[in-house]
Amino acid sequence: MKDKRVNLFVVGAMRAGTTFFMQLLSRHSDIYVSPVKEPHYFVDNLPTSLFESLPFLNIDRYFEKEFPKPLHRAQIKKAEDYAKLFSLGQNSMYRVEGSISYLHAPEAALNICQYNPDAKIIILLRDPLERAFSHYKMDLGLLRENRSFESLLKEQITDYRKGSLDWSSVLGMSFYDKPIKRFSDRFGDNVLCLSAEALFRDTAKTLSKVSGFLGTVKFDAIELEPVNSSKRIKFRKLFYALNKLGLKRFFSFVLPSGLKQKWFNSISTRSDKDMQLSEKTLEQLQKIFGEESSYYKKSFSSNKNP
């Protein structure tokens, strides 16, 4: 009897090209991609900083009436719901999802292994500092953050030294060594690490590595634009205050999706904000990343500046 479990997990770091990569995988005839790109099923407690529940999203209604409508993220908790995500891909060689929480959530590797110890794991990484800055800009655009990048990192460096830094923090999600080890210890040669820089610079070459790793036919020539660019909110002090009062969630509930997107586009512009860090903070970060993300430097340092 054919095994129908999910057998491919993209556990890339947040802001490391996972959405673009999943779009590439969806074009392959041997791969079925979950309609919910990030179900976060194997994380016991999903931080609100990574997943803010949407008041208009009812999971039961989704599976009863809207499935398989594409969703970017949801928090799937029932085994039967998770299985249904892949019910239309039972004849595919691979069934895949790409929850960005899995790389850093301490329990995710074990939970996935208990579910399917033969699964293949693709880990997408990005330069730690560039990833952290992209994460920060995303939080600015989502009105989750209002501090400067310098102030935020100073606070999180202090937490790191105290041993109290949360794994889902901007700094914590740029730590790669321990998360990679958790997966490599459990999945061995079934783990492939890729860099976002190489993916964007030479997509065809990266996909050739992926097809070799998966044992599939090669990917067809694909032309896709990278997605998930950061946005900068106009009048951000005003909207940050309104968000703290809960009005963002209210408008998310009452406005139709098309109108919400038009409204968001009208109050935002593409973020071209430059990274501004003092020399002291930059030196501290380089030392920390040397201790916590040495794998990236050893494996992908030549991939910077695509």
Provide a descriptive summary of the structure in words.
This protein is an alpha/beta fold and 306 residues long. The protein has a single domain, classed as Rossmann fold. It is built from 14 helices and 9 strands. The strands form 3 sheets. It has a 5-stranded parallel β-sheet with strand order 2-5-1-6-7, sandwiched between helices. Strands 3-4 form a two-stranded parallel ribbon. A two-stranded antiparallel ribbon has the order 8-9. It is globular.
Task: Map the helices and strands.
Layout: E1 8-10, H1 18-26, E2 31-33, E3 36-38, H2 59-66, E4 71-73, H3 79-85, E5 94-97, H4 108-115, E6 120-125, H5 128-141, H6 149-162, H7 177-187, E7 191-195, H8 196-201, H9 203-214, E8 231-233, H10 236-244, H11 247-254, H12 257-266, E9 268-270, H13 279-292, H14 294-300
The gist of it:
By secondary structure, this protein is α/β, with parallel strands linked by helices. It contains 14 helices and nine strands.
Give the helices and strands as they follow along the chain.
EHEEHEHEHEHHHEHHEHHHEHH
Please write the CATH class name: Alpha Beta
Termini distance? 45 Å
Determine the CATH superfamily.
P-loop containing nucleotide triphosphate hydrolases
Overall pLDDT level: 86
Proportion in β-strands: 5-15%
The DSSP helix count reads: 14
Q: What's the gyration radius in Å?
A: 19 Å
Number of strands: 9
Q: State the secondary-structure class.
A: alpha/beta
Task: Domain count, please report it.
Answer: 1
User: Shape, please?
Assistant: globular
Largest sheet, spatial ordering of strands: 2-5-1-6-7
Return the CATH architecture.
3-Layer(aba) Sandwich
Low-pLDDT regions: 238-244, 250-255
